[in-house]
Amino acid sequence: xxxxxxxxxxxxxxxxxxxxxxIEQSTLVLKxxxxxxxxxESALRKAVHASDPRIPIQYKDRSAFEAEFRVGDDLxxxxxxSSALVFDHSHPIWKNSWVSLDQSRxxxxxxxxxxxxxxxxxxxxxxxxxxxxxRLFIGKDGHCFAEGKRQLGVLFNDxxxxxxxxxxxxxxxxxxxxxxxxxxxxxPAFDQMKEISVLEAMVNTMQSSVSTGSFKFESEGxxxx
Length: 225
What we know:
It is built from 7 helices and 7 strands. By secondary structure, it is an alpha+beta fold.
């Protein structure tokens, strides 16, 4: 019975301590990411508004775990998961030699980046969708890697050597913004818009009732990288 209790204590300290370490690191990364976004807002706004002051550039804190960044018609939401997560056994990360040396590195924090149309939020178009374009994973020691669309899953995929410094996070933010600007929104199919209920027309404005077309990359398949 005593041996069982000792094992229980060791498991609690090991598993729960690891989760705390991961979330503390992820919280620090989110704090640095907020700083990067604020600086990006100031620099980008100054450069863009010198040529065209109509283009909105705005950073905003949404909550303790979320931040948003608007560039023109695109709204990016950075959302940190509040719990530590473990990769499924089928995930390629387990084949990484650096993770094999210490399997606790397979427990990570996660910051997801979603792309919305800014008007979808502004006009409360509840039928519109946002799309996941990247996920940044942070380990207990501050190392990180990303999964994402196109170059986002290639530039930040060396978990063993990539540390979530301010410089790395700035590059990540640049990649996310460039990707969001590079994709377009499709015109909705005619049949998709041909019917609307009387209730929707009475309760909502037409802006909020009618769904905008999908982002172009929706048809590109799953996550790359």
